[in-house]
Amino acid sequence: MKNKNNQKDQELKLLLPKKAPKAMELEPHQNNPTKTTLKAKTWDESKKMWEIAAPAIIATVAQFSIGVVTVAFVGHLGELELAAVSIVQNVLEGFVYGIMLGMGSALETLCGQAVGGGQYHMLGIYLQRSCIITLVTAIFLSPLYVFTSPILKLLRQKKEIAELAGKFARWVIPQLFAYAVNFPVQKFLQAQSKIWVMTVISVAALGFHAVLNWVLITKLEKGLVGAAIAENVSWWLVVLAQVVYVVCGCFRESWTGFSVAAFKSLLGFVKLSLASAVMLCLELWYYTIVILMVGWLKNPEIAVDAISICMNVELWILMITLGFNAAISVRVSNELGANNPKAAKFAVIVAVVTSTIFGIIFTIAVVATQDIFPKLFSSHEEVISETSKLAYFLAAAIFLNSIQPILHGVAVGAGWQVSVAMINVACYYAFGLPFGALLGYKLGLGVKGIWIGMLAGCLLQTVVLSINVLRTNWTKEALQADARIKSQATSNLAQNGSVGNGMITHSQEP
Question: What are the TM regions of this chain, as residue ranges (predicted)?
Fold first, then answer.
């Protein structure tokens, strides 16, 4: 009986539709190999990006937070002190920071592409050449610190604020020369993806800076003098530690010692440095002018304090985005230098998507804490209230700044500084600022109107840059990078003018 029943069961099974055994079933990725390949490529590129972005974000945030910590301590001294230090940081130091960062950013193009092309021996020469240029630039910028007070009065800033800001500016001149060395060293390290030591140094300096501020301002009651001393000491601690790391023998291929060659053929390097500086300065000065425009309103103290707090929050979050900026600059320059145009293009996509996700998170966080974050910077109810009212404008700026710096990083990695400088002029200075002035002054919207104009300029610039990146011929960019590397290896001279003129190429890829 059992045999008959088994025979019937077997016959029934033969009639039923056959099902593939589990071992024979295709895995999901086997059904769609393209999807799996894309997933693997995305994961691989994300790992490469985060290896650079994570330490760069921490280092950049830590270094920027040195100024934020100073503002937080000074804000409790009084409204006048906060306004004075805010103007120095956002106007004077913002102006100088842009020039120094821009001059140092020439290394991102040259060093990044040299690494991709295997020309490591040129990196040390580039670093020394960049430091020479930035230190000379710092000497020429020093008078701005000395004459800050009359300059601010000329720009119609309130007399009391201008005079106190002038004193603080003269006290922080040593910080200017720290900037001059800091940015070239940073770019040298970033191009080789050697950032973790720089990150540890920056975090340690930030902790030291917070303690030093507490000792000098809170305990010893040294006021603005104490704040200036703390900034100078902390910044030079960062710079000296980084320099020791570079010259101590950890970079045998790229650092072979000081060389007289660094003083040769400076003209070509200066041209690329100036192009980089103009591109970044036009970006950073835009925010500086916004602060000045707010200072021209009636009863500016509260308005300047409020927008300065918002700018500090915006710039602090922007420092996170600048980590992705550094990562995409390195990735694009390395891949173009290695003649991998498709990899460069894919790196751009991954970086933009990742940074935008972070931008959305921070946008939501600012709106959710609009009544809380102003209290970190001031204890005055009027300032807190006015800052809270600007939270939605701040949130919009943060979202745009999650995309825009990535496109700037692409530009630096590919060497498009001249094109981006022209786009900045059109979007910011021909459109954004006049529109903000119209809304703020003529239509009486005050701070909100000025900020709406700023946002409009940022939005227009982001759209234009996005279109340019989408239209880029990456194969042609890789060929230009190869030619630039060869010209450096043979002539030891930056040939930015003859090998790619810093302009974006728009023809479609074949």
Answer: 52-75, 127-148, 197-217, 233-251, 272-295, 315-334, 346-370, 390-414, 426-444, 450-470
Q: How far apart are CA 459 and CA 481, in angstroms?
A: 30
168 falls in which pLDDT band (50, 70, 90)?
Answer: very high
- For residue range 99-114, list pLDDT tens digits in order: 887 777 777 777 777 7
Amino acid code (one letter) for 229? I
Q: How far is CA 172 from the centre of its chain?
A: 23
The answer to whether residues 235 and 91 touch, using CB atoms and an 8 Å cutoff, is no
396 contacts 451 by C-beta, under 8 angstroms: no
- Which tokens belong to 150? 């009359």
Residue closest to 318 by CA, chosen among 392, 390, 402, 420: 402
* Residue 499: band (very low, low, confident or very high) from pLDDT cuts 50, 70, 90: very low
- d(CA 336, CA 339) in angstroms, rounded, equals 5
Question: What is d(CA 431, CA 258) in angstroms, rounded to the nearest whole number?
Answer: 46
Token output for 435: 């529109």
C-alpha separations of 226 from 68, 70, 204, 219 in Å: 15, 10, 20, 10
Closest CA to 266 of 97, 176, 131: 131
Listed in sequence order, the residues at least 6 apart from 275 whose beta carbon sits closer than 8 Å to its beta carbon are: 106, 417, 418, 421, 496, 502
User: What 3-state DSSP class applies to 216?
Assistant: helix
Cα–Cα distance, 377 to 82 (Å, whole number): 9
Q: Which residue has the higher pLDDT, 427 or 122?
A: 427
C-alpha angle 50-317-450 in degrees, rounded to nearest 5: 140
Predicted pLDDT at 175: 92
Task: In whole angstroms, give the CA distance from residue 399 to residue 123.
Answer: 35
For the cut 60, the answer to whether the pLDDT of residue 227 exceeds it is yes
- What does the pLDDT read at residue 108? 75
pLDDT at 9: 53
Q: How far apart are CA 382 and CA 378, in angstroms?
A: 10
**CA angle, corner 127, sides to 123 and 131, nearest 5?**
170
Q: Express each pLDDT in 79-96 by its tens digit.
A: 788 888 888 887 788 778
Rounded to two decimals, the pTM is 0.72
